[in-house]
């Protein structure tokens, strides 16, 4: 047992060295260029009353009858609110061991599984809460509808908890168990097709 823990720790340290380096790249974004996020465009736009920021969605066009705040309402602040409302899942360490292994981290091999989890989480949030739903913990819950939305959001997050539990049916632990049918074991790299099969099976 001690040997397994040491091996797991060494592997985790190696993966942190191997995959933990980042290179800062110089960017050249223009403040006037639009920013797209999951089908929504956030940008600055001239309005009849001057320069305001706005957002539009694919498949929608602003008309003269639309309220001015609907046409020019969200802008870059809307982008920030939209961005922080997306579920982000990444490598983790020190979660409960996976079945039949000593792995307590997915660092270095779980990237595609995490990407699949994020795709599924986004789909579930859009399905249950809608594309326009925003997470705003600093605002607090104002009414029964917001309370219900908060409960749904928490429930979705809980489904992806990093543990082998009936309360977390979409966890990386569960996906690894499903991956065994495809000949995968904890620590193996998963490709997009493997993850798609796991997501199909888990749903």
Automatic annotation (TrEMBL):
Leader peptide range in chain numbering: none
Cellular component per GO, a single term: cytoplasm
Reactions accelerated catalytically: [protein]-C-terminal L-amino acid-glycyl-phosphatidylethanolamide + H2O = [protein]-C-terminal L-amino acid-glycine + a 1,2-diacyl-sn-glycero-3-phosphoethanolamine
Localisation: Cytoplasm
SUPFAM superfamilies (UniProt xref): Cysteine proteinases
Keyword Cytoplasm: yes
Keyword Nucleus set for record: no
One record GO biological process: protein processing
Entry's Gene Ontology molecular function annotations: cysteine-type endopeptidase activity; protein-phosphatidylethanolamide deconjugating activity
EC number: 3.4.22.-
Pfam families assigned to the protein according to its UniProt record, in alphabetical order: Peptidase_C54 (PF03416)
Keyword annotations of the record: Autophagy, Cytoplasm, Hydrolase, Protease, Protein transport, Thiol protease, Transport
Domain annotation Peptidase C54 catalytic: ranges: 77-202
Family label: Belongs to the peptidase C54 family.
PANTHER family, alphabetized: CYSTEINE PROTEASE (PTHR22624:SF52), CYSTEINE PROTEASE ATG4 (PTHR22624)
Function comment: Cysteine protease that plays a key role in autophagy by mediating both proteolytic activation and delipidation of ATG8 family proteins.
The protein's name: Cysteine protease
Taxonomic lineage from the root: Eukaryota, Metazoa, Ecdysozoa, Arthropoda, Hexapoda
């Amino acid at each position: 047992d001690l040997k397994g823990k040491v091996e797991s720790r060494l592997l985790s340290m190696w993966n942190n060295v191997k995959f933990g380096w980042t290179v800062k790249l110089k960017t050249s974004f223009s403040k006037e260029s639009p920013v797209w996020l999951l089908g929504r465009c956030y940008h600055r736009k001239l309005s009849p009353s001057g320069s305001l920021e706005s957002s539009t969605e694919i498949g929608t066009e602003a008309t003269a009858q639309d309220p001015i705040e609907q046409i020019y309402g969200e802008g870059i602040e809307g982008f920030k609110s939209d961005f922080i409302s997306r579920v982000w899942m990444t490598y983790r360490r020190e979660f409960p061991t996976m079945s039949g292994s000593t792995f307590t981290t997915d660092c270095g091999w779980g990237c595609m599984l995490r990407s699949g989890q994020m795709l599924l989480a986004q789909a579930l949030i859009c399905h249950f809460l809608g594309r326009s739903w925003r997470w705003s913990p600093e605002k607090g819950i104002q009414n029964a509808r917001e309370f219900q939305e908060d409960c749904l959001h928490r429930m979705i997050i809980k489904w992806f908890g990093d543990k082998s539990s009936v309360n977390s049916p979409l966890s990386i632990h569960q996906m690894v168990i499903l991956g065994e049918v495809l000949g995968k074991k904890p620590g193996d790299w998963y490709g997009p097709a493997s993850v798609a099969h796991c997501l199909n099976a888990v749903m």
